[in-house]
Amino acid sequence: MRNFVARKLNNGAVLRESDEARLDELVRNWRAMPARTDIISQGDDPEFVHAILDGIACRYKILPDGRRSIMDLLIPGDFCDMHIAILGRMDHSIGTLTPCRVAHISRPEVEDLLQEYPRIARGMWWSSLVDEAILREWLVNMGQRRSDRQMAHLLCELYLRFAAVGWPEAFSLGLTQEQLADTLGITVVHVQRVITALRQDGLIELRDRQITIPDIAQLMEFSEFDPDYLHLPPEH
C-alpha cells in the first residue's frame, strides 16, 4: 500500500529515507471504515491522531435544524486532527464520505515526530498552513462565486490535491449529490442543475455516479482557479 502521508509531506519538506521509514511504521496501524461513519466526534478527547490512507472523509458540523455543513474534504495523505495533540478536545466532527482506510497514531508518537524528525515536523507544519489556506479559499468560493464556478473550483482543487500525492488512478469523485450540497452550501436540486450544466458544457463527465474531468485546464479557466493557495511544488 502506498504511503500517501509521506507523499503529501514531501510536498512541504524533503524527507529522508529514515523519515519515510518512520512514517511507514506509523501508518501500519489502520482500520477500514465504511462510508458515513464518524472517525471522531465533536467534544471527544481522543487518544489518537488519524490520517486518511484511502477514501474521502470530511470535517463537519451539524446545525441546530439538523443540516450538515461540510467544512473540509480529507483525501489520502491528510491528517484529520493533528491539532488535538495540543488542543485536546474536538470542536467539530470528522466522518467518512466513502469507504476509508484510516491510520491511528498515538499522541506520544506525534510528539516524537515533532521533536525527533525535523523534516517530518516541517512537513506537518506546512500541511497545517495549507489547511488554513484552503479554508480561506473556501470562504471566498462560497461567498463570492456563483454555484457553477464553486463546483468547478472545488473539482480543480481536489484534482490537484490528488495529483500531489501521486494518486494512481484517473481522478474521479465518488461523492453523492447530497454530500456535494453539504460542501457547497446549496440544495441537492441546485447541485443537480449545476452538474447538468457543467456536463452540457463538456467540462465534466458523469458515469455511474463518478464525476471525471476530461480537460483540467479548461475547467480551471472556467472557474478562474489559481492554485497558489495550495502551495505545491512547481511540478504540480
UniProtKB/TrEMBL annotation:
Keyword Transcription regulation among record annotations: yes
InterPro entries: cNMP-bd_dom, cNMP-bd_dom_sf, Env_Response_Regulators, HTH_CRP, RmlC-like_jellyroll, WH-like_DNA-bd_sf, WH_DNA-bd_sf
PANTHER family reported for this sequence: CRP FAMILY TRANSCRIPTIONAL REGULATORY PROTEIN, DNA-BINDING TRANSCRIPTIONAL DUAL REGULATOR CRP
Protein keywords: DNA-binding, Transcription, Transcription regulation
PROSITE patterns: HTH_CRP_2
Molecular function per GO: DNA binding; DNA-binding transcription factor activity
Organism: Paracoccus litorisediminis
Recorded GO CC terms: cytosol
CDD domains in UniProt: CAP_ED (cd00038)
Protein name per Swiss-Prot or TrEMBL: Helix-turn-helix domain-containing protein
